[in-house]
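Forum: Protein Structure Q&A
Topic: Joint prediction for protein chains with partners

I've read a bunch of threads here and the consensus seems to be that you should model interacting components together rather than docking separate models afterwards. I'd like to see that in practice. Below is the full input, 810 residues plus whatever partners are listed. Could one of the regulars post the assembled result?
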Amino acid sequence: MPKLSVTRRVHFNAAHRLHADGLSEQANREQFGPCNNPNYHGHNYELEVSVTGEPDPTIGYVADLSEIKKIVTSEVLDRFDHKNLNIDVPEFRNLNPTVENIALVIWQILEDKLPGTLSKVVLWETPRNHAVLEI
Amino acid sequence: MPKLSVTRRVHFNAAHRLHADGLSEQANREQFGPCNNPNYHGHNYELEVSVTGEPDPTIGYVADLSEIKKIVTSEVLDRFDHKNLNIDVPEFRNLNPTVENIALVIWQILEDKLPGTLSKVVLWETPRNHAVLEI
Amino acid sequence: MPKLSVTRRVHFNAAHRLHADGLSEQANREQFGPCNNPNYHGHNYELEVSVTGEPDPTIGYVADLSEIKKIVTSEVLDRFDHKNLNIDVPEFRNLNPTVENIALVIWQILEDKLPGTLSKVVLWETPRNHAVLEI
Amino acid sequence: MPKLSVTRRVHFNAAHRLHADGLSEQANREQFGPCNNPNYHGHNYELEVSVTGEPDPTIGYVADLSEIKKIVTSEVLDRFDHKNLNIDVPEFRNLNPTVENIALVIWQILEDKLPGTLSKVVLWETPRNHAVLEI
Amino acid sequence: MPKLSVTRRVHFNAAHRLHADGLSEQANREQFGPCNNPNYHGHNYELEVSVTGEPDPTIGYVADLSEIKKIVTSEVLDRFDHKNLNIDVPEFRNLNPTVENIALVIWQILEDKLPGTLSKVVLWETPRNHAVLEI
Amino acid sequence: MPKLSVTRRVHFNAAHRLHADGLSEQANREQFGPCNNPNYHGHNYELEVSVTGEPDPTIGYVADLSEIKKIVTSEVLDRFDHKNLNIDVPEFRNLNPTVENIALVIWQILEDKLPGTLSKVVLWETPRNHAVLEI
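Posted by a regular:
Agreed with the consensus. Here's the joint model:
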């Protein structure tokens, strides 16, 4: 049998800058270029969250995507949307908010809270750059 | 060697309502909310069908995507496009047409009919909700 | 000075069928083909609503797009989304819900209710078909 | 004869906050909600710039879109991309960077610098919100 | 009353090179750069064709978009799709196939053949470059 | 732990024709139809390249996507963009440039050159047809 999953796409707008605490100011500028701007820049992030499983034989859902949307909204969007990730989101106080680190933080936030098995997180920083986590 | 697949994307427009025969009318309204509207609503479904294999050494195709398009058209689109899934498509007489059940029905219809090994079906109900089946 | 407008995009999912009361059943089938299916089909409609004007010198808004979203939600989406346009929306009891007629109805609903001058309505029935109303 | 124009689309990523100098802190919070976050948020802006005219009878161009891209890059993108609009871009020191004001500033920057008559600027703040300036 | 139009989007894939007969080989290389490659390059062109008018009071159509699709297919797509514009399409034997010239040729082909008043042609050469003709 | 990857999307425009050296002219026309046009046609190819690994604990990158972009540009885009694949790219002198063969060639070019483990290549020939290679 093929593996079955369902996915919900959401979006949030946030400011960030890339800055590694373990590097000097000079090394940060060389490593991250304009992404290191001390005044921040920002993105329209697009996020897809997938859960895998069998469809409920009566209901026909692997999981209720409107319930997933509610959980992603309260756990991620309410904390990330229209925020400065470096300042307003505690997880990034000591963690560089690269697209892969943001995806990892979202995975850790969601993995025990969804009605089903979290199987994939895709996070687009721009239409040209994204990170994927999947089991 | 990496696994190789080729994919064809098609679309169909259909009406449906979500309704589980095993639930009371009241439970259906609570479970499915506006998706349970007895007069139906509808979607522009987007469908991607993938087959996997080796490219033919002479032709250079894993499979002929124009042939796949013809088969998907005759087996799926001619039966689903501009239809009411609940009424016009026999597979959903007793099966709730959730996005995951529609994807499963499409998999079952196509898996023995394509020139190659069906490896993935992706079905978008909206740009924000989709189901994936993959081996 | 160039003309300035701001636009909000929203979406709704609805069932409909094309059927002209002034034509015979046979003429309806010939005119509208599969769109005349008596059991309905459906679409993910995308809607853009624009207002034109001068930006407020203090606030910097031609109009508050979040206020426009609220009005479009209460006046259009709450009445059209997850509905059967022919049955559930009184404006289409005696009016064929073609993409141009739906756009005209939306214009008439919104033109006196928005904070600013309604200047454009674009309605996509599919990514390939749309209607535009503009002054 | 129909009017002819050619368009180039580019993008930039920037942080901003909405804040009107003429309003109290309290009024700013009420007017702009989460967009007033003092720590900023951000967007992937998409920008389309159009010029209108007759095609050169030898060359076949209304204007050379690669030249337009160079000018938009040096005049707009190099100054806006990966920046904080409120802090790093002098035009917004005393001007609220709403989508309509950013579009107006871009129009003023470009109108005398392009090889042809600037006829339209479209600026998307998100896929759901945009401003248009056109003659 | 606002102006009403309906639009159909289609696509075609074609090879071309930019080359002006009135310029030397050297001037062509300088003017058009890689677009002057003598071996051609190519694009997935996206085309939108709009007609304007009043909706028929019985039918509800400004124009039948499926009829427009048939005409655009036979008059444009059957002649341009999977072709080399410079070699296979007589209109470009002595006319440089820039995006604006292709749009002008399409306008001239269609303007007397559509069921309604042709009001707009938009032609995308890439998602970043397009031409618009409109009355 | 879920598998982590990061992806960069780029694009190139190229002409090609499908033609198998091992088939007669007649068999080529039957196999490839309009794609066999001896004068070529073309596409806007979209390419996604993914690498997988652990994020560097100091930097926070699985791989630097701007470095990946530079390598993909010099190794693939500078050789494929605005080219005729059959004539200008030596890899296709004796290999039919089907979407799966182009993806395979890109995989072979890139697999030892990227800063990280190449895990996925997706190549869209059109928005409706694509090939995927993945480990």
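The first helix of chain C runs from residue 25 to 32.
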